[in-house]
Specification:
Layout: E1 13-21, E2 26-34, E3 37-42, E4 52-55, E5 60-63, E6 65-70, E7 75-76, E8 79-80, H1 85-94, E9 97-105, H2 112-123, E10 129-135, H3 141-152, E11 158-162, H4 173-184, E12 189-193, H5 197-209, H6 216-220, H7 224-241, E13 245-247, H8 253-264, E14 269-273, H9 275-279, H10 304-316, E15 321-322, H11 362-374, H12 378-392, E16 410-420, E17 439-449, E18 452-456, E19 459-460
Parallel strand pairs: 1-4, 1-5, 6-9, 9-10, 10-11, 11-12, 12-13, 13-14, 14-15
Antiparallel strand pairs: 1-2, 2-3, 5-16, 7-8, 16-17, 17-18, 18-19
The structure holds zinc ion.
């Protein structure tokens, strides 16, 4: 990964005549980028040579997308996600995302500082800018002190705590509370995976023992009630600890109700959902054979009533962010091997690696389904894709908007091009898309990372290692 120095000198870039859309603005102007940052925004800018000019007439100019939930090159039990940072962030760029916050983790018996170091090695190939959330697996006096170091020294200002996967990732309530209390005093954000892991384990063991081994039982053993219960519990613990709380991949009406109630009581509680919960339902698990395994992610897909509630939550601001939870495992065993594949769970759904891809399709899907189909405003779209995640996770105003002094991270978006999603054309190493064959209107045309054009139509002009690590600031202010 680059430290931003010693690279090829950055070009001066002029983007002309685009329709600039941010979370609050909408106007036509030119944008001048120098040394990677936006220097001037104005009408009919005149710039001397040498300057690289891009004509954006007829296109929307959006802030580069910020995806705060990805799992790149991540080992999870006996499985490993199939994208490297190089391939995953190249796919992100083609989808209009220029900043990714990925999850690194503490290993048992080790300091989280070691986990961060290991993550930095893997993240060195990133093509877009990256930050890290730390997954805490053990909470003790030393790891609490290490959390403080991560916040103040390393720019890792958010932590993920699991309430699911007992024996693998789950923390007990006392540990959750201790970690929350530490975060509260240091401007850090606590992110929770909210499902009741122990009760789910009972249901899973019963299903497997009675021969219910197919992919659809992944969904039936993770009821929405248990997501609602854990979300409510996390909120109460965060309230007591006086920390802001961010609920990741919220999928269920019950969980949304708990978040809405907390927000009505003026608590700093936030939540994201993901495109798969907005566009797909649990009907996918009825697919023949083992096909349903493609949709085995956690939480699972829900019935259509939950989907309606999520769209409403986006409108009423009970949900503030849409992230991908890109956690790619191939459907087929080849060419990467069983470790990277869903086939591990052929006989037993509880052994199917949990996760699904989506890093390349977030912006166009939500533009199509939200802005074009459901009347979402362009401002709300930008807020959900870029501005809100940047603000909540200590990246704003460097990232998440188009303003003088902000990084030159821009997406030129054609609101009228119609195209069809094909896994065979995307840039991730995963071998399927949850949205295969979906026809969308609205497509990413060009992408700029700190002023460098890295995506130009179908052409890749970026390179592995050009992404910078972002030392993040205080979280939780929206
Ligand atoms: Zn995840």
């Amino acid at each position: 990964m680059s430290d931003g120095e010693g690279d090829v000198p950055m070009a001066t870039v002029l983007i002309k005549q685009g329709r600039i859309v941010t979370a609050v603005d909408d106007y036509q102007a030119d944008i001048l980028i120098e040394d990677g940052r936006i220097r001037t925004i104005g009408q009919d800018l005149v710039v001397g040579d040498p300057v690289e000019i891009h004509d954006a007439s007829g296109l929307l100019v959006l802030p580069g997308g910020v995806d705060v939930h990805t799992h790149l090159d991540w080992e999870f039990g006996v499985a490993r996600t199939v994208d490297t940072f190089g391939t995953g962030t190249k796919a992100a760029a083609f989808g209009g995302t220029t900043t990714v916050i990925d999850f690194c983790n503490q290993n048992r018996g080790e300091s989280p500082l070691v986990g961060l170091e290991d993550w930095h090695h893997r993240a060195a190939s990133a093509c877009v800018d990256v930050g890290a959330h730390m997954i805490m697996l053990e909470v003790n006096p030393q790891s609490l002190a290490d959390m403080q170091t991560l916040i103040t020294r390393d720019g890792v200002t958010s932590f993920k705590l699991f309430m699911a996967y007992p024996g693998v990732l789950m923390l007990d309530d006392g540990s959750l509370f201790k970690a929350m209390r530490l975060a509260a005093g240091h401007g850090a954000m606590i992110c929770v995976h909210a499902e009741n892991g122990q009760v789910i384990q009972v249901l899973v063991e019963e299903a497997v023992a009675t021969g219910r081994g197919g992919p659809k039982y992944h969904s039936e053993t993770r009821p929405t009630l248990l997501e609602g219960e854990a979300t409510h519990r996390a909120i109460k613990l965060a309230e007591l600890a006086k920390t802001p709380l961010y609920v990741v991949h919220l999928s269920a009406r019950e969980a949304l109700a708990a978040v809405a109630e907390a927000r009505d009581h003026d608590l700093p509680v936030y939540a994201e959902t993901c495109p798969h919960y907005l566009f797909l339902t649990n009907e996918e698990y009825a697919r023949p054979g083992f096909e349903g395994a493609k949709y085995v992610m956690t939480p699972p897909l829900r019935d259509p009533s939950h989907q309606q509630a999520l769209w409403r939550g986006l409108r009423t601001n009970d949900l503030q962010v849409i992230s991908t939870d890109h956690c790619p495992f191939c459907f087929n065993e080849q060419p990467f091997g069983l470790k990277f594949s869903k086939q591990q769970g052929q006989q037993d759904f509880s052994k199917i690696p949990n996760g699904a891809p989506g890093i390349e399709t977030r912006l166009p899907l939500v533009y199509h389904g939200g802005v074009r189909t459901r009347g979402m405003s362009l401002h709300r779209f930008v807020a959900l894709m870029a501005t809100n995640p940047a603000k909540l996770f200590g990246l704003f105003p460097k990232k998440g908007t188009i303003a003088v002094g902000s990084d030159g991270d821009l997406v030129l978006f054609d609101p009228n091009e119609t195209w069809t999603i094909r896994a065979s054309e995307h840039h991730s190493r995963v071998d399927y898309s949850l949205f295969e064959g979906y026809t969308l209107t609205g497509r990413v045309q060009k992408v700029f990372l700190r002023g460098q054009c890295i995506v130009d139509g179908k052409e890749w002009r970026g390179r592995e290692g050009m992404g910078e690590f972002i030392h993040r600031g205080e979280c939780g202010r929206l």
